[in-house]
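REQUEST FORM: STRUCTURE PREDICTION
Request ID: SP-0412
Submitted by: Lab K.M.
Chain count: 1
Length (residues): 83
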Amino acid sequence: MHLLLIYDITSDRIRTKVATACEDYGLDRIQFSAFYGVLSRTHQEELMLRIGNLLGDAPGRVQLIPISSKDWAKRLEVANDAG
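STATUS: Completed
RESULT:
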């Protein structure tokens, strides 16, 4: 299943660990606080459990949003990598 994982975490240390966890599960960073990828439901639950443990009692919010292949294909993007 395609998914978008976004987060707002104030702690630099925890934020870095969450990003590493996302990469460990094969997600691709598409923005500073956003990752995209394809994971089974089991791997989604494992990742969210890992992230929850990393976050602990620290302030923050992480959302894992499933997106159908059809809807992902319809996304619009503006990018400028020159510079």
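NOTES: The two ends are 34 Å apart (CA to CA).
Reviewed by: T.R.
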